[in-house]
Amino acid sequence: MPYIEAKRTKGCCNGFTLVELLVVISILGVLLGLLAWGANAARTSFLKHAQAAEVSKLAAAVEAYRLKYGDYPPDGFTWQLVESHLRKAFPEISNSELELLRPHAEDFSNTGSNRFVRNDNSNLLPQPELAVFDPAEALVFFLGGFSSDPRKPLTGNGGPFKEDPKVPGTWIYNAQRENAFFEFKLNLLTLNDDGTKSVDETLYDEGVPNDLLPVYVGKGPGIQRGGVPIVYFNSRSYCTPNAGHRFYVAGDIRKTGKTCARPFLANGSDIVFANQNSFQILSAGYDNLYGCQPYFILQGGPATLFAVPSGRPYSVKSDGTIVKTENDAFEPFLGVGVSAPSACYDNVSNFAVGPTFADSL
User: Fold this and answer.
1) Phi and psi dihedrals of 200, rounded to 5?
2) How far is CA 136 from the centre of its chain?
3) 38-52 pLDDT, tens per residue?
4) Which residues fall within 8 angstroms of residue 156, CB to CB, at 6 or more apart?
5) What does the alpha-carbon distance between residue 71 and residue 105 come to, in Å, rounded to a whole number?
6) Which of 58, 224, 252, 357 has the greatest number of C-beta atoms within 10 Å?
7) Distances (CA, A) of 37 to 40, 74, 340
8) End-to-end Cα distance, the chain
9) What is the mean pLDDT of the segment spanning 166-180?
10) Long-range contacts at 101-110 (CB < 8 A, ≥ 24 apart)
11) Which neighbouring-strand residues pair with 314?
C-alpha cells in the first residue's frame, strides 16, 4: 500500500483564541454563580424549615408543661406572676427557693453576686425592678427541667441551680438538669466555658452584670455568628397598663441598629394579639433581626406592631393604645428603625401559617 502523507490543516494546533477563552470563562462564571445561588437558596430553605421545626417543638414543649403544671409558664415579666405560678406548680416549694428569684431592691445594682439569680436587665425598662428574668431566659428556665424534690424544685438534684462547691452559699447554673420538656443543646446556650454562668448580658452588650440564666439561640446563625435568642411571650404580659407592650432586645436599646422582639397582632377587624390567650414563641430567622423597637425610646414617631399574616402595621400611641394605620399602601413587615425594609420576613413563630412570616403572606 502506497504511503500517503496526510496534510496538516493550517492552524489546527494553535489552541483557543483569546475571544474563545473569554467566552468559556464567562460561561464558567455564570455556571458557578448559578451553582452558588442554588446552594445558598437550598441552605436558606433548609435553615428556615429547621428553625420552624424547632419552634414547633418548643411550642409542643410549652403545651406539655401546661398539661403537667396546669398553666402556661410566665415569661418573667413580674415577680407576682412568677411567684403565684411556682406556688401553684410546686405546692410544697420552700420560701428559700423563691427568695433566689425574688427581685431584691438591695441587690438591684449588684456587681455580679451569685446570691440571687434574678436578672437586672435594663431592657425591661421602665419597670425593671418588677421583672425576674427576660422572655428569652424564661424559655430556658421553665422548659429546661426542675428537680423532683417537691420542696426544692430549683436547687434539688437536677434543678436549674446548684450550690457552688468553691463558694458555699452561692449558686451556679446546673447544665445537667432533669425532667426537661425540651433538650436545649449546651453549645447553643449562652454559657461560659465551664457551663456555670450565662454570658448573654456581656455577649449582647446589655450594660448589666451577667447572671446565671442563659438564653437559647437555637438553629440557624450560632452564637459566634451573632445569633440572637428565641423569645417566649406569655399572653398575660403582651400588653400591661403600667409598662406598655412587652418586648425583648438582645442588646442595649439605647444604641442604634438594635431591633427587638414584640408580640404580634392577629389579622381581623378587632385589634387583638395572635394567640390571644396562650403564648407566642419568636425566632429572628437567619438575619438576626427581630424587626421592631419599643415605643418609648423612639424619636419622631410612634412604634409599630404588625399583624400576621398580612404584615399590616399598627401604630402604638404614647399611652400604649393601638390604632390601625390610615394609609392602606403599606410595606408588609416594614422594619422600624433598621435599614432592611423586610426585617420580619424571615421571622419564625408558633402562630405563622408558613415556615416564616414571608411564607405566610
Assistant:
1) -65, -35
2) 6
3) 666 666 777 888 999
4) 147, 148, 149
5) 29
6) 357
7) 5, 43, 21
8) 81
9) 90
10) 101/132, 101/133, 101/154, 102/132, 103/79, 103/129, 103/130, 103/131, 103/132, 105/129, 110/209
11) 305, 324
* Mode of pairing for the β-strands spanning 248-249 and 260-261: antiparallel
The H-or-E segment that residue 202 falls in is: helix 200-203
CA distance 248 to 135: 7
Tens-place pLDDT, residues 101-126: 887 644 444 444 455 565 555 454 44
* pLDDT reported for residue 343: 82
| d(C-alpha 257, C-alpha 275), whole Å | 29
What integer best gives the mean pLDDT of the chain? 81
- Output the CA–CA distances (angstroms, integers) from residue 147 to 12, 21, 117, 205, 349, in the order listed: 83, 70, 17, 32, 29
Region 288-315 average pLDDT: 74
- Per-residue model confidence as pLDDT tens digits over 238-276: 876 554 567 888 876 656 556 788 899 998 778 899 999
State the CB neighbour count (10 A cutoff) for residue 221.
17
Residues 6+ apart with CB under 8 A from 153: 86, 89, 90, 93, 97, 146, 147, 159
Closest CA to 55 of 285, 332, 358: 285
C-alpha cell at 267: 389579622
Q: Is the dihedral of CA 247, 250, 252, 256 positive or negative?
A: negative
* The pTM of the whole model exceeds 0.90: no
Q: Please identify which residue in the block is written with the cell numbers 399572653.
A: 235
Task: Say if CB 175 and CB 186 are below 8 A apart.
Answer: yes
Segment holding 134, helix H or strand E? none
What whole-number distance in Å separates Cα of residue 139 and Cα of residue 97? 19
Residues in the chain: 361
Are 282 and 231 within 8 A, CB to CB?
A: yes
How many angstroms separate the CA atoms of 62 and 45, rounded?
26
